Amino acid sequence: MWAIYDELIAGVPPDLEVEDCLVGLNWVLVRSRATGLVMTPLEGHPRIKLAGKIKGMPVRELAVHIKSWNNFEAALGLAAINSVLNTPEQVESLCGRPLSSQPQVSAFTYFQEQVKGKKVTIIGHFPDLEPLARNCRLTILERRPGPGDLPDPACEYILPVQDYVFITATTLINKTFPRLVELSRQARVILVGPSTPMTPALFHYGIDTLAGTVVMEPELIRRVVQEGGCLEIFKGGGRMVQVSRDEGLAGARNRQSREQAVQIMMGRGFSAIGAG
Questions:
Q1: Has residue 75 got a pLDDT over 50?
Q2: 192 with 169: CB under 8 angstroms?
Q3: pLDDT of amino acid 266
Q4: Short-list 182, 222, 231, CA closest to 24
Q5: Which helix (H) or strand (E) holds 38?
Q6: How confident is residue 251, by pLDDT bands cut at 50, 70 and 90?
Q7: Strands 238-244 and 209-215
Q8: Spatial contact of 8 and 201, defined as CB atoms under 8 Å apart
């Protein structure tokens, strides 16, 4: 159950330090290589014992807290991981095209035609789902169910018979992610929301599409988070991105090939110097 968490933590360089941290009403922000965002938890005791010690902490040390059963500490851990993975350069390499070419629409709009007539479940009650609901047989699973929602234990019965499943990335925080993906193995699975770590590692754990956010204007996003903004992150500074399994794995292979080529060239250079 911990395999994906350990892999996410291992992807954080050990020598990188946290440059900034902010826990807002709606978003948790950690800045290191880039700015990582995670939705502020709605559940759990909002006490952070790390407060006052986070800035300057090794990012990997903070990332380890994604395994904490304290949701706020786990959110900080995921934000730390996203501050390393969700850089504009890395995500652009992952999807194999400029970020400016990405359509600035939610994953639910992006998949609206593909899910027509299909059985679709969304984990988490996102806003503006009415257009999607008109196109498919939609079920919403929610920990705090509203009218028309099903409580999250219904996942055991619902997910195995779905065609498409959208899973909020905050499930990585409350640790339901591994089981939800296991139950959804017959469906096409989209991990969705600004909390999504944009890493090809997730494709090996049953995710078909990553639908996350890259922070393009760090100072603007910090101000929005500091002032209690929510969807305002998308009005300036935050760019929506979608990366399919095929794109992501091809991008990862290409990046690995480039890194290997650089290592070979460096090796030849050192050999030539030594021989001279």
A1: yes
A2: yes
A3: 46
A4: 222
A5: strand 35-39
A6: low
A7: antiparallel
A8: yes
